[in-house]
Amino acid sequence: MNSVLKTIALLGIFFLFFNFSRGKIKYEIMEIDFPKNWSKPVYDFKKNPLIKSKVELGRKLFYDPILSLDGTISCSSCHLSYTGFTHVDHALSHGIGDRIGRRNSPALINLAWNTSFMWDGAINNIEVQGIAPIEHPDEMGEKLSHVIEKLQQTSAYPALFFNAFGDSVITGQHFLKALSQFQLTLVSCNSKYDRVMKGKETFTEQEQKGYQLFKNKCATCHPEPLFTNGRFENNGLPLDTNLKDYGRMEISMNENDAQKFKVPTLRNVQFTFPYMHDGRFKKLSEVVAHYNHGIEDNKTLSKDLAIPMNLTLENQVEIISFLLTLTDKSFLFNPDFAYPRK
User: Fold this and answer.
1) Cβ-contact 290, 188 below 8 angstroms
2) What is the pLDDT of residues 154-208, one digit of tens each?
3) What is the CA radius of gyration of the chain?
4) Any residues with CB less than 8 A from the CB of 182 and at least 6 apart, and which?
């Protein structure tokens, strides 16, 4: 009897030590780095701090096509790390069974500062954003509940979830939190523009002229340092009669939101083509030309676009020259954001 009690006691000590050791791994806190002059992220990291094991789990999930119905589409299928976490080879997102969606995929950059997600702002919390593409019939075509079942049946994921959350029983909440944790680490703040702001580099004459033009003509919708105001604007694009996408109005049901879409960040814009919610423009020169002379007037047009820009061709080249300084190659080619090969 005494030997049995001793065995139980030893096992108790072992499990206590084991859980404590796992706990230390589980709570290895990470922080995102950003310049001191930036505002604080709107995401509340105090409620859900970044944990290394959760971030790594989220990264694996982000690149895993098991999230789709037929195992062919992952988050990364439409959000490539080296193109600012969007796709570049077609205008509209492609999903399972060669299905084509209605919109161009938005770039995933500096999401911790976002209060809404998707082109129409249908989602206001990054922790539930993943449900939208997973359950969209033209994207991943799955059900969250079935995704959880599939993950639970794998040999790897139960252990990874235990390492991250202390529980090998996979839940939808833990799945979504892990996926969001990885995306919250996608911070871009080391472009030439950023180094100029820190006094470590200088703009060329052409870039400097473009910067001044940008501040005068574009900064209302794309203010520094995030280069988006986070709002919804009608930027004067003629309505695509095939897609008939009315943007924010389809969520708010308010006709004053017709053809309004979320203002995208311009960080890494050199690599996030094609442009606009429907990917209609392939080149930055087409985008600048649109704002210079292609705006269609209508009742919901952004008031900031009512006054013509009157840019010369030289001015347009100068603005593009500045926009290229927003490219952050340390972000685009960060191995911590790429496909996890381990």
Assistant:
1) no
2) 999 999 999 999 999 999 999 999 999 999 999 999 999 999 999 999 999 999 9
3) 23
4) 55, 56, 57, 58, 59, 61, 62
Please answer whether residues 188 and 227 qualify as being in contact, where contact means their C-beta atoms are separated by less than 8 angstroms.
Answer: no
Distance CA 238, CA 217 (A): 21
Q: Give the span between the Cα atoms of 34 and 32, in whole angstroms.
A: 7
Q: From CA 89, how far away is CA 248, in angstroms rounded?
A: 26
CA distance 125 to 147: 20
8 Å CB contact between 33 and 334: no
Q: Per DSSP, which regions of 41-109 are E strands?
A: none
What separation, in Å, do the N-terminal and C-terminal C-alpha atoms of the chain show?
Answer: 47
- Phi, psi values for residue 58, rounded to 5°: -60, -35
Q: Mind giving me the DSSP string for 177-238?
A: HHHHHHHHT-----SHHHHHHTTSS---HHHHHHHHHHHHHTTTTS-TTTT----EEB--PP
Tokens of 215: 């501040």
**All residues at 6 or more sequence positions from 148 whose CB lies less than 8 Å from its CB, including other chains:** 170, 171, 172, 175
d(CA 229, CA 122) in angstroms, rounded, equals 17
Q: Can you tell me the distance from the alpha carbon of 324 to that of 236, in angstroms, rounded to the nearest whole number?
A: 24
Identity of the residue numbered 326: L
Spatial contact of 62 and 179, defined as CB atoms under 8 Å apart: yes
Quickly count: other Cβ atoms within 10 Å of residue 170's Cβ. Answer: 23
- CB-neighbour burial class of residue 122 (10 A; exposed 0-12, middle 13-18, buried 19+): middle
Model confidence over 29-50: pLDDT tens digits? 898 999 999 999 999 999 889 9
Residue 331 three-state SS: helix
Sign of the alpha-carbon dihedral angle for 165, 64, 102, 265: positive
Write phi, then psi, for 177 (nearest 5 degrees).
-65, -40
CA-CA distance, 61 to 65, in Å (whole number)? 8
The mean pLDDT of the chain is: 92
Distance of alpha carbon 217 from alpha carbon 290, whole angstroms: 13
Q: How many Å apart are CA 194 and CA 190, to the nearest integer?
A: 6
| Helix, strand, or coil (residue 29) | strand
The packing angle between helices 52-62 and 172-184, to 10°, is: 90
Q: Are the C-beta atoms of residues 192 and 325 closer than 8 Å to each other?
A: yes
